[in-house]
Amino acid sequence: MDNLKNYRDEIDEIDKQITELFERRMDISKEISRCKKEQEIGILNAKREEEVIQKNLSYLKNKDYRFVLEGFFRNLMNLSKLIQNEENHR
Ligand SMILES: C=C(O[C@@H]1C=C(C(=O)O)C=C[C@H]1O)C(=O)O
Question: So where does this one cross the membrane (predicted)?
């Protein structure tokens, strides 16, 4: 049995699901940026970002991944703010 091939197939399937969820998250982030524009609120909400990180760290089963999960969410939220900025400057 080719383990490498099987593992990569599994990663490909997971990546597909991540991409679908990523797209949904970014679509919602765009909607949030429209609300913020209407209400004249700035894009960054540092308190909310800390809550997002803490909440998701609490869901983690393998605590060895704490550091990388935090990095993942910080990067994800930076991309989300990029999309919000683009949306508000169209
Ligand atoms: C999406 C928002 O805007 C920004 C992006 C966040 C995110 O991607 O989770 C969180 C807080 C904000 O800095 C929000 O305010 O909820």
Answer: none
Q: Give the fold, CATH level 3, of 3-88.
A: Chorismate Mutase Domain, subunit A (1.20.59)
Say yes or no: CB of residue 77 within 6 Å of ligand 1.
yes
Cβ of residue 55 lying under 6 Å from some atom of ligand 1:
no
Find, among 56, 48, 54, 55, the residue nearest to 80 by Cα: 48
Q: Are 84 and 36 in contact (CB under 8 A)?
A: yes
- Whole-structure pTM value: 0.96
Distance of CA 73 to the CA centre of its chain: 6
**DSSP calls for 65-78:** GHHHHHHHHHHHHH
Query: Domain extents for the chain?
Result: 3-88
Averaged pLDDT score across all residues of the chain: 97
Q: Which two tokens stand for residue 85?
A: 């900025």
Q: With a cut of 0.90, is the ipTM above it?
A: yes
